[in-house]
Amino acid sequence: MAERTRVIKVVPYDPAWKTQFEGIKAMVTEHIGDLIIKVEHVGSTSVEGLSAKPIIDLDVVMDSYDSFPEIISRLAAAGFEHQGDLGIKGREAFRRTIADEFMPYHLYVCPKDGRGHLEHIAFRDYLRGNEAAKRAYEALKLQLAQDHPRDIDSYCNGKTAFVREILSKV
User: Fold this and answer.
1) N- to C-terminal Cα separation, the chain
2) What pTM, to 2 d.p., does this model score?
């Protein structure tokens, strides 16, 4: 099962998040680069200037599920445990089982046409291009973290309507 956030902390944007993403991407690509199309930085840490929980989200994009068994095998050999889709079809979660030098991160393997991946990209790109939406999302996240500092489900559920509203525009 995925590790649960114990205390929700939303912190100011840190330019080091880009560097951390690039390092994790290089490590993942070393193991499965020939089986994937690309690795995308998604989630709030991928939006410059946006406060976020300091956890990098990565979508590892595969062409189809044909290569997925080999991806699971290679990632397992590299110290990752496949956790299944965790309730989101088309987004396979992996958890690091050994320590590495990177900040916390969530690794997802997704088909190129999977809804989870496409929504991650659409939401990220909308926030990158819309300052007012970025600030509104930041204010919401800060308020939710203050209101629910130890309840990740309430924090996440509190963002749902905002995310759906943005996705309805793209």
Assistant:
1) 32
2) 0.92
pLDDT band at 4; cut points 50, 70, 90: low
Name the token pair of 92.
């396979």
| Helix extents (H) in the chain | 16-32, 68-77, 115-129, 131-147, 152-169
Cα(111)–Cα(169) distance, integer angstroms: 23
The two tokens of residue 102 are 């990177």
CA 125 to chain centre: 14
Instruction: Write down how long the chain is.
Output: 170
Identity of the residue numbered 141: K
What are residue 60's phi and psi, to 5 degrees? Answer: -95, 115
Cα(140)–Cα(34) distance, rounded to whole angstroms?
Answer: 39
| Beta sheet of 105-111, edge-to-edge order | 38-42, 56-62, 105-111, 92-96, 80-84
Burial of 4 (0-12, 13-18, 19+ CB in 10 A): exposed
Distance CA 59, CA 107 (A): 6
Cα 126 to Cα 130: distance, rounded to the nearest angstrom: 6
